[in-house]
Structure formats: C-alpha cells, structure tokens
Design a protein that fits this description.
The complex is a heterodimer of chains A (317) and B (307). Chain A is an all-alpha fold. Chain A is 77% helix and 0% strand. The two termini of chain B are 29 Å apart.
Chain lengths: 317, 307
C-alpha cells in the first residue's frame, strides 16, 4: 500500500457501507416515533378521508423495506420527497439553506485557525513563559464556554449594548457582500471560539511533541537559527495532527451551527432541522439528518485522505 | 550564542534523559512573570478540578435543604428584581430566585452527566473489551454498527433521538449515553489492544490465567487511564449538550430548572434583566471547567509521556 491512490480508493470504498448504515439508522429512527405520522400532521380532528389521502400520498401503507428503498432511490437521484407541511420539495429547501451554513462554517473555521494555531505555536515555542501560561488558561476556559451563552453575551454586549453589529437575520452575499459579512461576524466568532481553543491546545501539544525529536536537536546542533528550526523543522511536522484536528473541528461546527443559527436567526440547515424537529415534520428531519451526517462524514473522509497524502506512514494502517 | 526572542524553549521543553543542546540561562533575566517556569503540576490541576466538581456537587445536593428559597415559587411582585445581598443572582421574570434555580439546575446537569457516562460505560466498556480482546469477526460485528452512530455529529444525533423519544431528564441521559457508547467502546478497544501485547499479560497467560482473569485482572486495570480521562471529557461535554438541548427546547421539560432552559427564558429579558442570562451561563461554564481540568490533569499526571 504505498501508492496514495490505492489508499484513497480504499477510504472511498469504506465510506459506502457507512453511508448506507447512516441512511438505515435515520430511516429507522423516524419510524420508531410513536403514533401515526398522518395524525401527527393533520391532528386528531382530521377526517378519515384526509388521513387516508395523506397516507397514500406519502406511501405510509407500504411495508417498511419498500418505503426505505423508495426513499433511498429518491435520495440517490437527489429527490428527497415532499415536505408534510408546506408541500415544497425538500431537496430545494436544503439547497436554499446549505450556502448559509457552509459560509458560516468556513468563516468560523478561518477564525478558529487564525486565532488558535498561532496561539498554540507561541505557547509551544516558549513553554512555561507568560504567553504559554496565558494561552493554557485561555484554552481551558475556551473549551468550557457554552457556545449558546457566548452568542447571547455577544448580542447583549456588542449588538444591544454598543450597537456595533447586527444581532440577527441574514443578507445574501449576492445582495450585499458587506452586509452579509457584517451579519456573520458575531455568529462566526461564537462558533469559532471553543474550536480555536481546541486547535490552540492541540498545536501546542504537537509543537512540544515535535521539539523533542532527534531531528530538531540535530537541526539545532548544526547551527540553524532558532527561528529556522521552528518554521522549517518543527512546524511542518507538527502540521499533520493540526490538519487532522482542523478537519474534525469543521465537522463538529456543522452541528454547532444548529445552536448558533438558532440564536442569531440565520436561515441555515441547522435551523431548518431544529424547526422540523419542533413541528414534527419527519420527512424533513429525516433528510436534513442524512445530509448533515453525510457532510460530516465527507469532511472526515477528506481529512483522512489529506492526512494519508501528507504523511505516507498513515497509509499503512 | 545568539538566541531568538521568538523560539526559546525553556528547560522543561526536554524530557528527562535528553539533554538540551541549548542550556537554560544561568541567571534568569527579565521581569519575574515573563521568565519560563515549569508548567503547573498536573496533579494539582486534576485535584483542583475534582475539588471544584465536588464543591458544586455538594452545593447541588445539600443547598436545597439549607436554602429557604424555592426554585419554582412564583412571586409576581419580585419579577425581574436586580441582584441584592439576599438574592445575589437576582430574580427572573416570574419572580423566582435565580440562585435557587441555578443550584437546583446543577442537580439536573450533574445527574445527567454522571448518569449518561455511567450508562455509556456500562454498555460501551464490555463491547470495547470484547472487540479489542477477540479481534477478528467479533470486532467487526461490534465496531462497524458503532461507527455508524459515530458518523453523526453528537449534538445532531442527540437532537434526533430527543425528537423521536420525547423530552425529560431521563431521556436526555439515555440519548447522551447512546451517543457516548461508541466513543467509550473505541477508547476501551484501543486501550485493550495496546495492553494485551504487554509482557506481563503474556506472563499471566503462561502461568495459566483464565481469559476472565486475564481481561479483568491484568488488561482492564492497566487500560484504565484513557478510560478515566475520556469519562471526564464526556462528562464535561454532557453538561454542555444537556444545556444546549434544553436551550433549544428538546431537552429537559420546563418546570424542572435546567441551565439551558434558564438561558432560553432569559434571552427575552436580557436587556431588562441581564442577570437572568449571565449567571446560568457562568454556572454552566464553571461545571464544564471543573471536568475539563480534571481530564487535563489526569491525562498529564497518569501519562508522563505527554506532559
């Protein structure tokens, strides 16, 4: 297994059964809901005719395996079915919401990297110094702050208190790029803070771990300036775990987006999932769960592959 | 020799046995707070975290019987009253004591954290033990379905489970346990895989130890460190997730005081009564911080290679 292509192909093949498993889990979960979905939608006052019409329209009378295969073949063609309430195609709804969540996640990932990695680098390079001790404390506090509380505090202090940035709503990038970014500043910071703390802690650990290695001592012994040792020898080797964790964090941010989108009333995928859960709109829940789960898996897969390409040793496993 | 201002490893950057090629300064210069020091002793961090949790736990268990205020008694005339000496956390929109509610909410938070992790350990640890010890097809049979659960982000899966099975303290704990079981199983499996090749395990086998004795007497005790660390991390996350679920309306049901529910209630009054959102949030952070300190300290204390 020395070629990166064989490694990539193997990872991709492993993803297929995982995706199928996820679809079974999501589908099964939604069928475990107690009660008749038709009654849940129409209410107890619905006439038998209306209930029967709805059951027929959504194929609720078919055996479960048939329902599952029908749903799966639809999903494979990009057809997620029709929503119980608004009678809109779910695929369309997801496509409308996805860019918001994607933009939020990417901005937050950028924030987390820009803050977390240099902080960890500084701490690791000057272990025990004032910067290091400060960043250790900040990191510990950072991973302990509840993100929904941070969001509320930011709204209270920055939006309502100082009147600096909008506290809710969303403007499409195409409409006004500046307004769009202004609306996403606070949500991105909220989503990024704990992630930057995780990244900072990891970067510090990776730098310290690499600094112990023989090749670093050798680089220093041959008379390289300390700065060159850090940037040419320590950082590239410490980058491998950092990239992996960054990938994982992007995945987690997809689910953190549910909370952040709710606080800042952003029309994203997370908010859509939560709304569907609260109004018991199961076809939508089922689809968004699968889409977010698949995105999460794809990000992890991309990280795995990247990891294998950067570090040939990882392909062995 | 010249030393960069930027990259200046302190003496502690080297583990014992590897002599630093650039020695420490003979006489430290600069203000005292800038000088490199040894990192904080991990054992102290762990003990501080454990003490913090113990203190919060004691308050949650004991205070309700000592404090006069009820967390659910509504007093309209006290609504949104600012913090005073008697009520340092102020009153909420229904005139309920925020302090009293925070303390009662700790019972829910800590209860969910302990309950969910205990349940996940009870299910996940045996699964991981079998998978790691047996390898081969039992390993595949156990771990592949758990991979599917792990393929979902934790918060998302918890929300989905709550939407199916309803809300309430017990259900939150069960949902979190489901999410945590594969994490525990993976950690236990990895620890068992690493431990079972140790010489002392071979030794015990050669002496005729049964499989049970081998696993429970020799492998499990030596695989305990990562399991303990993971359990504290998961408890920290459990407190955060319980609060998040309740905040979103899919966690603990309303009359029960929960930190997340208090934040959700307080959002509507945050300009008139900021104490309604400040204190529950700080309280959440304090409990999470305690578990994180415990996890950090335990990891560095019990695993000297990492610190």
């Amino acid at each position: 297994m020395s070629s990166p292509w064989a490694y990539i192909a193997r990872r991709l093949l492993l993803a297929v059964p995982l995706l199928l498993g996820m679809s079974v889990l999501v589908f099964g979960l939604m069928r475990l809901i107690p009660g008749d979905p038709a009654v849940a939608v129409l209410g107890y006052k619905a006439t038998p005719e209306a209930t029967r019409a709805l059951r027929e329209a959504f194929h609720l009378d078919e055996p479960l395996p048939t329902q599952y295969l029908r749903w799966l073949s639809g999903v494979a063609r990009g057809d997620f079915g029709i929503d119980f309430r608004q009678n809109e195609p779910i695929g369309r709804m997801i496509l409308d919401r996805l860019p918001v969540t994607a933009e939020l996640t990417l901005l937050a990932a950028l924030c987390a990297t820009v803050v977390g990695v240099p902080l960890g680098l500084l701490g690791g390079a000057r272990r025990g110094g004032a910067t290091d001790r400060a960043s250790l404390v900040l990191g510990l506090v950072g991973i302990s702050i509840p993100d929904f509380w941070l969001g509320i505090m930011l709204i209270l202090l920055v939006s309502l208190g100082a009147g600096l940035l909008p506290s809710s709503g969303f403007v499409a990038f195409a409409e006004s790029p500046i307004e769009n970014l202004l609306h996403l500043v606070l949500p991105s910071i909220t989503l990024a803070l704990s992630r930057s703390a995780v990244l900072g802690r990891l970067t510090r650990a990776a730098v310290l771990d690499t600094a112990r290695r023989g090749f670093v001592q050798y680089a220093r012994a041959k008379g390289l300036a300390e700065r060159a040792v850090l940037f040419r020898h320590v950082l590239p080797n410490a980058a491998i775990p950092i990239v992996t964790v960054l990938g994982l964090q992007i995945g987690y941010m997809l689910s953190g987006a549910i909370v952040v989108e709710t606080i800042f009333t952003l029309p994203g995928l997370g908010r859509m999932t939560l709304d569907a859960v609260l109004e018991r709109n199961y076809p939508v829940v089922q689809s968004t769960l699968l889409v977010i789960g698949a995105l999460f898996m794809l990000v992890n897969l991309a990280t795995d592959i990247l990891y294998g390409v950067i570090d040939p040793r990882a392909r062995q496993r | 020799m010249t030393r960069s201002r930027f990259w200046r490893p302190g003496p502690a950057a080297y583990s014992a046995g590897e002599a630093p090629l650039t020695g420490p300064r003979l006489r430290p210069r600069g203000p005292r707070w800038r000088r490199p020091r040894r990192a904080p002793q991990p054992r102290r961090v762990a003990v501080a975290g454990a003490l913090l949790i113990a203190a919060l736990g004691a308050i949650a268990v004991l205070a309700p019987s000592v404090l006069p205020g009820s967390p659910t008694a509504i007093a309209k005339d006290l609504a949104l009253r600012a913090p005073t000496v008697n009520e340092p956390f102020g009153m909420d929109d229904l005139g309920r004591s925020v302090l009293s509610r925070v303390i009662h909410a700790y019972r829910v938070s800590l209860g969910v954290a302990l309950g969910s992790v205990a349940l996940a350990l009870a299910i996940g640890a045996p699964l991981g033990l079998v998978a790691g010890y047996a390898e081969g097809w039992p390993d595949q049979l156990i771990m592949r379905p758990l991979d599917v659960i792990m393929a979902f982000p934790a918060v998302l899966l918890a929300i989905a489970l709550m939407s199916v099975f309803g809300t309430g303290v017990v259900l939150v704990s069960i949902a979190l346990a489901v999410v945590y079981t594969p994490v525990i199983a993976r950690v236990v499996r990895a620890a068992v895989l690493a431990t079972k090749v140790e010489v002392y395990v071979d030794g015990a086998r050669a002496l005729g130890a049964t499989t049970w004795r081998l696993v429970l007497g020799h492998i499990l005790p030596n695989a305990l460190t990562p399991i303990l660390v993971q359990a504290s991390v998961l408890m920290a996350i459990a407190i955060l997730v319980e609060a998040a679920l309740s905040f979103l309306g899919v966690g603990v049901r309303p009359p029960t005081p929960s930190l997340g529910l208090m934040l959700a209630d307080g959002r509507g009054f945050m300009l008139q009564a900021p104490w309604m959102v400040v204190f529950p949030g700080l309280a959440t952070m304090l409990a999470v911080l305690g578990f994180n300190m415990m996890a950090d300290g335990l990891r560095d204390w019990l695993d000297p290679n990492r610190a």
